[in-house]
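User: Fold this one for me? It's Rad51 protein.
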Amino acid sequence: MLLPSLEDGITLLDVKGGRGVPILQSLVLDHLLLHDGPAFWVDANGHATTTTLAQIAPSQRLLNRIHVARGFTAYQHYGAICDLPSAVNKSIQTSTANARAAGRGAPGRDEDTSPHTPALIVAPAIDAQYRADDTLGETHAKTLQARTLARLATYADGYDIPVLVTRNERNELTESVATVADHHLECEQTRMGPRVVGEDFETLVYPVDDGAYYQTTFAYWRQLLAARATQVGVEPTTPTPSTPTPEGVGTGVTADGETVAATADPLLDAWTATGTGGR
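Assistant: Here's what I get for Rad51 protein.
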């Protein structure tokens, strides 16, 4: 409900207003929670930072399933992409050997998954090294990036898994990334939280304390606007759904030092509080 599922093929994640490291890592961890097998991460520009991964991950054991390679130049990045099949084979051999030594089988979540085979490939900032490498001309950079994308497409098809990529900039160099992508996710940072939109997904709710949700549907916004209309003395032209008035849960203090009654909906309090100017 809160995060989109990653389908087989290349998924391009575009994040507005920043690099989007937390949302990228959240998508990776969420996918690993739902699927068996390791993730292979070819990193650029520090997206695989262990600090935030450790903070976000609900289990440290989950982090053991993420294998990271880093490319600090265009050729290193392309080389890491080319070496992915060898890394996958080595991981499968080690995993199956450890399973045999422990005397256990390889139960998966379903018959189509396995704890030994890859579950996901991640390649953030796919254009970063090809854009920044001074030793490459523009034509050579485009060619090397195109070969990288072609290999990722081959891996997605060969392993029947998702490949998650991001790009630093939207311009002529990264048009090919959007062209080769099978799926496209757009993420925008809002005051309520990250809003993700895809072909079959759109963020409609944001979690708050006590398991409640702020719902970003027409009904939700209509309720807020009706409260604003009442505050400024405008009678709403459309009737609002009749809902029981929640009991007060205490008091709060505004930025001006005024003590006001608080309800179970702090965002509605902020909208209807006197003298806040709609903050």
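One thing worth pointing out: The CA atoms of residues 226 and 237 lie 9 Å apart.
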